[in-house]
Amino acid sequence: MPGENLTREEARGRARLLAVDAYEVALDLRSAVGAGPENRTFRSVTTIRFRCSEPGAGSFADLVAPSVTAVTLNGEELDPAAVFDGTRVALPSLAAENVLVVDAQCAYSRTGEGLHRFVDPEDGEVYLYTQYEPADARRVFANFEQPDLKAPFTFSVTAPAGWTVLSNGEAAGEPRSIGPTAATWDFVPTRPISTYITAVVAGPYHVVRDHYSRTFEDGTVLEIPLGALCRKGLARHFDADEIFTVTKQGLDFFHDHFDYPYPFGKYDQAFVPEYNIGAMENPGCVTFREEFVFRGKVTTSSYERRANVILHEMAHMWFGDLVTMEWWDDLWLKESFADFMGSFSQVEATRYDNAWITFANQRKSWAYRADQLPSTHPVTADIRDLEDAKLNFDGITYSKGASVLKQLVAYVGRDAFFEGARRYFKRHAYGNTRLTDLLAVLEETSGRDMAGWSRSWLQTAGVNSLTPLVTCDAADRVTELAIVQEAPEGHPTLRPHRVAVGLYRRRESDGALARYARAEVDVAGPRTVVTELAGAERPELVLVNDDDLTFCKIRFDEVSLDTLRRHLGELTDPLARALCWSALWNLTRDGLMPARDFTGLVERFAGAETEIGVLQMVQNWAQSALVHYATPEWRDAGGRALAGSALRELRLAEPGSGHQLAWARFFAQMATAESDLQLLRELLDGAGKIDGLEVDQELRWAFLGTLAARGAADESALTAELARDNTASGKRHQVRCLAARPSAEVKAEAWAAVVESDTLSNALAEATIAGWNQPGQRPLLAPYAERYFKEIERIWRERSIEIAMAVVRGLFPMLQGDRRTLDLTDEWLSAHEDAAPALRRLVLEARDDLARALRAQGCDTAAAGAA
Known about the structure:
single chain, globular, 20% strand, alpha+beta
C-alpha cells in the first residue's frame, strides 16, 4: 500500500489552504459487462471547483488509478506523467478560485474497495456498487479525500440500458439514451457531504418501492421516497415489507427526538454482494451486506440484528452525514452515537424491545475484548493517518463508545441528552466538529461538568472491574455492602460509574432466583459503600451493574459465584441473566474460571435460556472456550460433552423454533463422533428426521462444512451440492467447505490461493481462510506458522489494506495455541520494529489473544489437577 496513506497533518494543512465549492463526477461504466481481463477499467471524469486562501501555493488531489488521460487546471493542460504518481495529482501554483478537471481510467475492484464489480455465477449478470470508508472514493474519482472538505456532488453515470442506477441524490429526470444499448443517468446535486459517503449503485438489481410521509406540528409535510434493492437471484427471499416497516419506524423515532427533518431527499437501501462490512451510511443510498437477505430460516436474533443495523445507519444521517467529524480522531462522534441510537430506537420504536439485552451480551463483549488488547485506545483516539483510521473501526469506537453514551444518558438525563443532540445538529448542520463541540451543547443542556466526564470516559483507555464485598450479621442482614473498583496496571484510571446494584434470592414458592432489593448509586474511587442496601436480607447473588447502566467488568463475591454455578438457569430476569453470562465469560477469558467450568455451565443451563440472541452468543463462547482456553488433553472429552448436550437440547426444543435451529447449528459445530456425523448425513439425505427441523439450503451447507472438515464429505459431494445451489452464496459455501477438508494437499492449495495469488475476490478469500482454519486439524496447519511470519510484510506491501487485514488476522496461527507460536510471534515483533504500525498492531493483537489463551489453559490445567 505504498503512497496511498494520508497523514492527519497533511489533511489539516490542506484544509487550512482549500475550500471546496462543488464536484461534478461523470462515470462511464459500460465496460463492466462483457468478456475481458479482470483488471478492466472505467472512465472517470471529475470537475472540482475550489478556492485557495493563499494564491500561488501548491497542493494535491487524491486519485488511485491505473492511468490518467488528461489533467486541466484553470484551463491549462498539465502533463499527466509529470503531476500524477499513481495516488496523487500535484496542483502547482493555485489561484484564488480554481477549476480542476481530471480524466482518468479507474479500476473496478475485486476487494470491496472503491467500485466493486461482481459477476453473479447464477445468471452471469454484473452488479456494481461503491464502498469508500475511510478513503476509497479516490479509487473512483479525483477528490480531496478527507472528511472536513465537504461539498455538493453532482453525479452522472453512463451504464448499460435497462440497469438500475442510483446515487446519493434523486434522478434528474429519465435516463438519456446513448445509442441502442446504453443510457446516462443524471442526478441532482447533493447537499454538502464528505467524499467517503458518496455512492453509486448500478446493475440489474431487483427494486421494491415505498414511500414515507411526515406532517410536522407547523404543518410542513416531508415526503421521502423509499427503495429497497437486492440481486435478482435473491428476489424470492427478499422481505422488503419488513425492511420498510423498520425504516418507517426509525424515521418516525428520529424525527420525534432530533427535531431536524431527514435532510437528504430519498432513502434507498441496497443489499449488495461481497460486501466487506455490515453496512454504510451513504446519505440517500445506504448499502448493506446481502447476507441480511436471509436465504433460509434464521432465528429472531438475525432479524433483530438486521433491524439494529438499519437503525444504526439511519442514525448516521444526522450523526455523521449531516454533522461530520473533522478528522478520524473523532470517529466516535458518528459510530458511538449510531451504535447507541440503534439499540435505543430499536427498543422504543420497533418490536425488538429486548435490544438492550443483546447490546449487553453481544455488543459489549466486543468492546470488552478490544479494551483489553495492547492496541486499546481512548474512545477519542489519536489517528495519525488513514491506516490508523482503518483499524479504528473497532469495538472501542463502536460499542465501548455506545456504552459510554448509555452511561452519559444516566449521568445527564435523557431530556438533556436529546436537547443537546438537537442543538448540535442545528448549530453544525453540514459542517464538521470535534469533541469540544458536542461537550459544549451537553454542558448547556445538563449543567454538568462535561470536561471531567470526558477525561474519565472518552480520553482514557481500559476497562474497570467492579466487585461486591458483602458483610452480614448473625440475623442474616446486610451490615455493609461495598463495591471495590480496580483498573489494569497499564490503564490505571478509576472512573465515576452510575450503577444499579441488585440483590437476588431464590423464592421459596418456586425456587426462582429473583431480585428483591435494588439501589442506584455513584461509584467513585477504589471503594464505595452502598448505604442504601444496609439492613437488607442476606443475598444469594449480588449483581453489580444490574440493568447495565455502565461499562465495566462485573465480578462476583464467592457466595454469588457459587449461586450461579448451581442456579444460573433459575435467574428470572433475562437482562440480569445475560449480564451474568457475560461476566462468567469474562472470568473465563481472564483465566479466573476454568474453561471446563464455563462449558459445564453451558451444558447445564443454556437449555433454559429464553433469549435466542443470548443463547447463540453463549454457544459461540462455549466453542471458543473449548478451542482456545481448555487444556489440550481435555478438548476431545469436552467437545463430546458439548455435542451430547447440544443433541439433547435439539431434541427437546420446540419443533420449528429458533431455539431448535440454534441447537441444530451448534450440534453440527461440535459433532465429531461417528454417530453424530451419521446423524448429520441422515438429516442431509432425508433418512433422518427431527420433528420440526427443516434442513434448508443454508443448514445443508452448515452440516456439509462439518462433514468436510471431518473427512466425511469429499470434493464430489461438495460439487454436487454446488450444482444444487449454483448461486453466489452457494459458491462461497463450497469454497469454504473445500478448504476445510483434512488433507495436506488441500491446505497447501488453500494457502497458495490466498497468500501466493491475488485472484480471489474478497468474499472468496475470506471463505477460503474460514475453511482453512479448523480446530481439529492443528497438525496439518502447524507447518504454516513459520511461513506466516515470513509472508506478512510482503502481503501488507502488495495487497489492498482490506485483503491484507483479512490475511494477517485470518491466517495468524492462533489454533496452535502453544508457547512455540508465542515465541515465533515475539521474534517477529522484535525483528520488525520498523514494520508498518498498522501491521504491527494486528500482530500485537493476535499475540495478546494467544498469550491470554495460554493463561486460560493454565487455569484449566490447574483445575484438572485439583480435581
